[in-house]
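Design job #97: recover the sequence.
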């Protein structure tokens, strides 16, 4: 049976574990970008990092308590580690979600400011599936890679897609250098589920450049991360 002191000690350790794990989750997006990893895996990394943090804090606290009270150092260690891991994993996931909400709010403000300064389409580049992106770009007056089919097919002398993709990357990187936001003419979810398509490659390229997906003003956007 827990004494009053032991109870409050466990509460304090749990709170400390949760707080540290929450911080791990909150800063997980920045840590992933700094490490050059795909931000799409962020929630798993946040939960794992939070669980590891919680387990270490709780386990260490249990060992220290055992030593100070004259008990075998491993008494209750497994339970403390498991409890800390559970609390930490939950806190890490919550911290990550809070960071996402925080980032989305800032990015929406950034997008709103850019669109208002540019009169609507300046600084906007449209990408999407073939047959969709040019129509939207023309409708809103945005930047778009629109090369006639015959010229597009002649870009690569050997008929491969290598030259075409190099042209595409140059177009994307020029827009990134200008600080453009990207309006998606096609669903991100559908594009991400595809394989071996230029649209999927474009999405991957921009995410690795630090862009983040948000939904605003009736559409999906990739906006420079802050």
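Job complete. Output follows.
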């Amino acid at each position: 049976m827990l004494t009053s002191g032991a109870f409050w000690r466990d509460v304090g350790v749990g709170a400390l574990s949760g707080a540290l794990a929450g911080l791990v989750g909150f800063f997980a997006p920045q840590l992933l970008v700094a490490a050059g990893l795909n931000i799409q895996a962020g929630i798993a990394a946040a939960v794992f990092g939070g669980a590891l943090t919680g387990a270490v804090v709780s386990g260490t606290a249990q060992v220290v308590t055992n030593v100070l009270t004259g008990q075998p150092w491993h008494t209750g260690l497994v339970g403390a580690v498991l409890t800390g891991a559970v609390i930490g994993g939950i806190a890490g996931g919550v911290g990550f979600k809070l960071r996402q909400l925080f980032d989305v709010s800032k990015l929406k403000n950034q997008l709103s400011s850019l669109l208002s300064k540019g009169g609507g389409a300046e600084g906007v580049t449209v990408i999407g599936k073939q047959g969709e992106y040019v129509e939207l770009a023309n409708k809103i007056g945005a930047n778009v890679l629109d090369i006639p089919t015959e010229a597009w097919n002649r870009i690569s002398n050997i008929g491969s897609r290598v030259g075409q993709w190099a042209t595409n990357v140059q177009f994307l990187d020029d827009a990134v250098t200008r600080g453009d936001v990207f309006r998606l003419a096609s669903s991100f979810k559908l594009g991400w589920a595809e394989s071996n398509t230029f649209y999927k490659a474009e999405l991957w390229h921009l995410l690795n450049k630090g862009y983040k997906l948000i939904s605003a003003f009736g559409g999906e956007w990739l906006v420079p991360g802050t």
